[in-house]
Amino acid sequence: MTEWKDGIAKLTLPTPFPVGDVNAYLIDGERLTLVDAGVKTEEAWASFLEQLDMLHLRHSDIEQVILTHHHPDHVGLLDFFPHSLEVYGHPLNERWLNRTESFFQEHDEFYRKLFHEFGIPAKFFELISLLKESLKFSCNRSLTGSLTEGDKPMGLSEWKVIETPGHAQSHISLFRKKDGILIGGDHILAHISPNPLLEPPAPGEKERPKPLVQYNQSLIKLLSYPIQMVYTGHGEEVFDLSMHVEKRLARQHERAMTVKSWLEEESLTVFEICKRLFPTVYKRELALTISETVGQLDYLESIGQIK
Ligand SMILES: [Zn+2]
Fold this sequence. Notes:
By secondary structure, the chain is an alpha/beta fold. It has helices spanning 42-54, 72-75, 94-97, 101-117, 127-130, 211-222, 241-265, 270-277, 281-284, 286-302; strands at residues 4-5, 8-13, 22-28, 32-35, 64-66, 86-89, 145-146, 159-163, 172-176, 181-183, 229-231.
């Protein structure tokens, strides 16, 4: 049942990905705002229209869209809307939405170099072009305008943008102070620990981002806000954020210390560590598992445990 609650309606949309359904939210502000827009499939669009119908709305009633981040399951449906629809998000969404040949080249080059550094056997290199497979569920368009730290989105005077990079470099969350509600995208998920996905350096930067270190910082950052409840990108709401953050950080630290104990015994490549952490999954999900592995090493380095 899709319904309004305190000016927010949660829509749950199917995806073809292992993660299952994705959430999108309507905010009844001065402008009717959609936060995130499921994958580009007929099923997702049909489900979206059906849920709008329960709210007595049509898709043309939506006045603007805000993206929490650029992943296909949060942006793809935009291709079903007219191009004139206003879409706002962090500037780093742009390279993933309005994809150019030079970005693809940069992307592949970035991964090729990393795979080489990580000791990944050549037979896996063909996976690099497959990494972009999921982009067929994404959209092709440009942002109308950008949202960054501290911004109040147009037409949403009660809401404020908090940058929460880590899971994606483009990730932002929306916070409403009056009742402590956060729309947290994939930064906060009740039962899954969000993958700190490796991405090419931001335009103009040379070094790759360290997504797990960023992710942890973004978690800790949220603790300074009086957050009562988090609407998540997948699954249920999170109510006790500080306990959630504490648990996530503790579990991640533990995993990193396991990796450190292996490195005390012998030297290992990133790929060898990845295989130990994810003995069966790594073949199927190399980008995710390598990102997670590098994350543990970046983390250990950041706390001075390894060099
Ligand atoms: Zn995501």
